[in-house]
């Protein structure tokens, strides 16, 4: 069954402000909590991010309890201020074998009327063949890329809800996997601290487009 995008008013629906006003926040209002109902809406909207063959090779573990954040504390290394003050720490896990969900996803597309049964069969056969011959490195790179896409979308969706984030790549991956992975086929890619900012955040600079872009 297709997951429908919730219809709800967004607190800050200004695209330019959400994108260009984003900062990495390291100190949040520790008294403010995002409800689990709203968190599910945020993650549903973030899940609209693109992914290779639409396999959505990500899973989220939302660490919002005192016990969970205590367990996570020593695993996030220098990022303990975010862990201690954010409403939640969202662990973005990559799925080792996303192709195992292809039939489920494409059956839902047929049921929703966005794909024919014939196209579904062609797509599933193509995915199965592609992943069967894919090397480990290519698989890992594809999953990491898709995890990055959903993380960026999560950060912008959070802004639209009136919240801020800090995207964290420095943490004890083996420890986080052992403590929080729902199963062995998931591996942690990124952690996103989310909550109500208690600081403005550092205004970083970017290289000019002339340094990063060529035309061919």
UniProtKB/TrEMBL annotation:
Note the InterPro entries from the entry.
Nitroreductase, Nitroreductase-like
Q: Which UniProt keywords apply?
A: Oxidoreductase
Pfam families xrefs:
Nitroreductase (PF00881)
Q: Does the keyword Transferase apply?
A: no
The Swiss-Prot or TrEMBL record annotates one GO molecular function as: oxidoreductase activity
Residues forming the Nitroreductase domain are 21-195
Family, according to the entry, reads as follows:
Belongs to the nitroreductase family.
- The name this protein carries in UniProt is Transcription regulator
> What does the organism's lineage look like at the top?
Bacteria, Bacillati, Bacillota, Bacilli, Lactobacillales
């Amino acid at each position: 069954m297709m997951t429908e995008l919730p219809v709800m008013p967004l607190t800050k629906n200004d695209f330019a402000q959400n994108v260009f006003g984003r900062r990495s926040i390291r100190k949040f209002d520790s008294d403010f909590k995002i409800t689990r109902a709203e968190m599910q809406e945020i993650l549903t909207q973030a899940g609209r991010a693109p992914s290779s063959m639409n396999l959505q090779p990500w899973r989220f573990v939302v660490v919002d309890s005192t016990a969970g954040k205590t367990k996570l504390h020593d695993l996030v290394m220098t990022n303990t201020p975010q862990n201690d003050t954010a409403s939640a720490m969202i662990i973005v896990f990559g799925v080792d074998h996303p192709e195992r969900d292809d039939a489920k996803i494409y059956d839902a597309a047929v049921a929703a009327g966005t794909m024919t049964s014939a196209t579904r069969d062609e797509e599933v056969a193509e995915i199965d063949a592609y992943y069967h011959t894919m090397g480990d490195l290519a698989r890992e790179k594809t999953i990491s890329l898709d995890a990055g896409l959903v993380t960026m979308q999560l950060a912008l969706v959070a802004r639209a809800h009136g919240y801020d984030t800090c995207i964290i790549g420095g943490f004890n991956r083996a420890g986080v996997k052992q403590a929080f992975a729902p199963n062995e086929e998931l591996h942690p890619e990124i952690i996103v601290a989310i909550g109500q900012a208690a600081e403005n955040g550092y205004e970083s600079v970017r290289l000019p487009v002339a340094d990063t872009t060529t035309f061919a």
